[in-house]
């Protein structure tokens, strides 16, 4: 049943304007649901970046990490920590991360 819910979640996230796909990945790197062409690579990036941000925040006593954004010349990803997994969201370069985060938060509350 959880698989169906996560698949619906990534499908709904992928329909948000400016989102090119999404992946939900467990802390151990197992991809739970995805709409991406290469879910294993994007999932690994999500876990690595999310866990690294958590370690840095813990070391510096910054509190809980809520999201991480990775931007490159042709790559833009938002990683959100949610429950026991990370959500990786591929974004267009001109899309507002704030707007996407608000849309994602509304989906996560359903």
Give short descriptive properties of this protein:
5 strands, five-stranded antiparallel sheet, globular, single chain, alpha+beta, 3 helices, 110 residues, Beta-Lactamase
CATH class: Alpha Beta
Label the structural class.
alpha+beta
Termini gap: 15 Å
Q: What order do the SSEs take from the amino end to the carboxyl end, as H and E?
A: HEEHEEEH
The CATH topology: Beta-Lactamase
Give the strand line-up of the largest sheet.
2-1-5-4-3
What does this structure look like?
The chain is of the alpha+beta class and 110 residues long. The protein has one domain: Beta-Lactamase (2-Layer Sandwich), CATH 3.30.450.30. 42% of the residues lie in helices and 28% in strands. The chain is built from 3 helices and 5 strands. It has helices spanning 2-14, 39-59, 97-108; strands at residues 19-26, 31-34, 67-71, 76-82, 85-91. A 5-stranded antiparallel sheet has the order 2-1-5-4-3. β1 (19-26) and β2 form a beta hairpin. The protein is globular and about 35 Å long. The two termini are 15 Å apart. The mean pLDDT is 92.
